[in-house]
Amino acid sequence: MKTQVAIIGGGPSGLLLSQLLHTRGIDSIVLERQTKDHVLGRIRAGVLERGFVDLMAKAGVAERMHSESYVHDGTLIAFGDESFRIDFAKHTGHPVIVYGQTEVTRDLYAAREASGGQIEFSVQDVRIHGADSDAAFVTFQQNGQNRRIDCDFVAGCDGFHGVSRQTIPPELRREYEKVYPFGWLGVLSETPPVSHELIYANSPRGFALCSMRNDHLSRYYIQCALSDKPQDWTDAAFWQELKRRIPAQQAETLITGPSIEKSIAPLRSFVTEPMRWGRLFLCGDAAHIVPPTGAKGLNTAASDVHYLFEGLSAFYETGSPDGLDSYSQKALARVWKAERFSWWFSGLMHRYPDQSAFDLKMQQAELAFLRDNDAAQKAMAENYVGLPY
Ligand code: RFL
Ligand code: PHB
Question: Of 203, 260, 291, 352, which cross-links 267 as Cys (Cβ 3.0–4.6 Å)?
Fold first, then answer.
C-alpha cells in the first residue's frame, strides 16, 4: 500500500488529522490496534476548548456537536464549606463546551467512512522504518498477514502506550515526568447532572468533580488511592463518598443510580521532546500526558493536530517545509503551558498524602485568593477555555 501520511492510532488525534488532511485532498491511512467498538467504548474526556470546536468545524464534523453539546459559561470551585463561580464568558468572552470524547470519535469515524477514508483495525506489531531517511514505511500484521505502507510521513497518534515515541532513539529523546500519589475513580450513570455547570471540589476527604455528558447522563470523579481497584468501590460507597466531598446543597439534590461504567485513572504529567524525528511526528498522548484536572488532554492533542495539519498542508500545497520544521517547537510551546495549568490546578484541588499543615494553609490561601481576585480568575479562565493556537 502507498499513502502520503501513515497515521498510527485511530483515537481522536489520528482521526481528526486524517479528516482534516482529507479536506485538503491529502491522502492518509489510519492503523488502529483495537476494534472500532473498543475505541468507542472508552469513556474519557468531556470538556472541549473553543480551538477544538473550531477544528471540528474545519474538518466538517461539527453538526451533531453543535446541536447536542452543553455550552458552559463558568465553573464552580468548592473548598471546605465554601464555593465560588469562575465566569469564563465574563473573563474571556468564550465558553467551553461539554461533548464526550466518545461522541467526537464517533462523528470522526462516521465522516472518515462517508468519504471512503481507509482505517485498518485490529492491526498488530506496527513498526515504523526509515523515519530518518527519504523512504519511510510502516509494517504491521493483520489477520496473520504481513503488510506494508510506503509513505511520505508518519503521524504517531498512538497514545501513551504506543510504538511511535519508542521509535525515536532514546539518546535523541528527553522525557519529563511527574507521577501523582493518587488516582481518579470515575463513574458514568444514567442520572440527570447535579448541576448545569461543572463542580470542582477540594474537600478534607479529597478531590471530587461533578461533570456530565447530557441531561440524562452524568460523569462524576473522586480522588482515590492508587492501590484502589474499581471493584473495591460499590456504587453505594461511591455515591456516599461523593456526597461527603461536594457542597451540602448539591449533596442534598444529587440523584444517584446504577453506574454504567466505573474506572480508575492514575494521574501523570509527562512530556517528551522533541515531537519530531525526521519524517515521524508525534501528536497527542503519544508525546504528552496531563492529569485530567482542567480537561487539557484531548484539547492539547487537538492543538498538536492543528500545527501538524498546517505544516503538512503547506508542504503539499507550496513545497515549503517550514511548518513541518517548526512543528515540534510550536506544539511544545503550547503543550508546556497546558502542562503548567493542569499541574497547578491539580495541586490546588487535591489532598496529598504527605501534605503538611503548612502546605494545607498555602492551598487554602491560594483558593481564597482565586475567590477574591479578579485577575487570578481571569488567568484561570483564559487557561480553562484554552490558550490561543
Ligand atoms: P488515545 O485516545 O490514547 O488514542 C490512541 C489510539 O492509538 C491506538 N494504538 C495503536 N494503534 C496501532 N498500533 C499501536 N501500536 C497502537 N498503540 C495504541 C489506541 O488503541 C488508541 O485508539 O490518544 P489521542 O488520540 O492522542 O487522544 C488523547 C485523549 O484520548 C486524552 O488526552 C484524553 O482522553 C485525556 N482526558 C481529557 N482530555 C480533555 O481534553 N478533556 C477532558 O475532559 C479529559 N478527561 C481524560 C479525561 C482522560 C481520562 N483518562 C481515562 C486517562 C478523563 C479521563 C478519566
Ligand atoms: C469529564 O467530564 O470527563 C471531565 C471534565 C472535566 C475534567 C476532567 C474530566 O477536568
Answer: 291
Q: Which of 219, 223, 383 to mutate to test the pocket of ligand 2 (most atoms within 8 A of CB)?
A: 219
Domain ranges of the chain: 2-48+65-70+97-178+268-350
How far apart are the two ends of the chain, measured CA to CA in Å? 34
Q: What distance in angstroms lies between residue 159's CA and the mean position of ligand 1's atoms?
A: 6
| Model pLDDT for residues 311-321, shown as the tens digit of each residue | 999 999 999 99
Q: How far is the CA of 273 from the centre of ligand 2 (A)?
A: 26
Grid look-up 495549568 returns 341
**Contact (CB, 8 A) for 310 and 216:** no
Sheet containing strand 47-48, edge to edge, reads 47-48, 96-98, 70-72
**90 catalytic, yes or no?**
no
List C-alpha distances in Å: 20 to 40, 104, 151, 187, 266: 20, 14, 18, 33, 31
pLDDT tens column, 165-207: 999 999 999 999 999 999 999 999 999 999 999 999 999 999 9
Kindly give the distance from the C-alpha atom of residue 296 to the centroid of ligand 1, in angstroms, as a whole number. 12
Residue 272: other Cβ atoms inside 10 A:
19
The pTM of this model reads: 0.96
Q: How far apart are CA 34 and CA 19, in angstroms?
A: 19
